[in-house]
Every structure is written in structure tokens, then in C-alpha cells.
Amino acid sequence: MAEAAGAPVSHDVFHEIEQFLYREARCLDEERYRDWLAMLTDDIHYWMPLNENRFRRDRRPEIGETDVAIYNERRRDLEMRVARFESRLVWIEDPPNRTRHVITNIEANWIEPPAEAEVLSNFTAHRSRREIDSAILAGNRVDRMRIVDGRWKLCRRKIVLAQNVVLDKNLGVFL
Question: Per DSSP, what are the bridge partners of residue 174?
Fold first, then answer.
């Protein structure tokens, strides 16, 4: 569970961050992946660790950034995934998936005012394709956002799925 980083951001800054997250979701839902990439910093780290079922008494450390993960990507990796989608040669995307991202429970706290904030949010991503192929992924995200040239950009995202076992056959969506 993530802890708040520092002091909460102001109402105006919170609104900017909230609108950023909503625009990001719309870019992904509309398959505007180049616009989405423009919302990321050059040093982006996009990470979704594996979940483990553990007993409460198990005190081993959480999975770290160097352990096995579903996604552990930098900007170049994300650019390659976008280029692959754009190639129109990805069979799982023909016909295309339809996605809807719902972002909620947003919290934003300063890490290094006035340039970086930690943003916590919950998400639900619905993916459907054809008549019977659909999936719902839900979880939370811990983002680090930075102001670059006067605009908020995403520089780190940790995605934690609520599901321990993902039954979806297509994890090619961005969360």
C-alpha cells in the first residue's frame, strides 16, 4: 500500500493532474498512442510487478523493480509497442480492441514542490473485441508526475492489479 509522499497539492494543481489523467485515458481509448507518448518524460519507467498470494505472516520484501514483472518498460520499449500497433500487423488488434479506462480515487501529494508529485489512483480498464472476447482489469497506480516545459508529464507508473491471476489473453493494453 502506498503512503502519501508529502503535503497535498493545491486544489488548482489537483485539477490539472486530474485532467491530465482523464486526457491520458481518452488518448488510450481512442488509440492516439503518439499523443500518449508525448505525455511521458524521456526517462519514463512503466512497471507492473507480478502479484503474489502471501500469508499475512510472510514478511519477505515486496517485489522490487529488478524482479520479474508483467511490464518493466522504459520509453524505448513503449515506443516499440506503439510502432507495433501502428504497423497494423498485430493479429490480436484486427479487428481492434475497444477499451475504456475509468480513473478514480485520485490523490496527489508533492514530492519535490513545485515540480514533482506522487499521484495515486484506482482504475478499471474494460477491453472488448468481437462478440464474446472481453475482459476487465482493475487495480491501482502509483504515478510520479513532473512539470516539464510548463506541462505535467508522467515519469513513473507502478501498476498493481487487483487480480492475482490474469485470465485475459491480451495484456497488450496500456493501463
Answer: none
- 94-129 pLDDT, tens digit per residue, is 677 889 999 999 999 999 888 899 999 999 999 887
Q: What are phi and psi of 22, to 5 degrees?
A: -70, -40
Residue with cell 493479429: 91
Question: In this predicted model, what pLDDT tens digit does every residue of 71-89 receive, in sequence order?
Answer: 899 999 999 999 988 887 7
Could you tell me whether strands 116-129 and 133-148 are parallel, antiparallel, or unpaired per DSSP bridges? antiparallel
0.90 exceeded by pTM: no
Q: Identity (one letter) of the amino acid at 73?
A: E
The SS3 of residue 95 is coil
CATH classification (class only), 11-51+67-161: alpha beta
SS3 content of the chain, % helix, strand, coil (to 5): 20, 40, 35
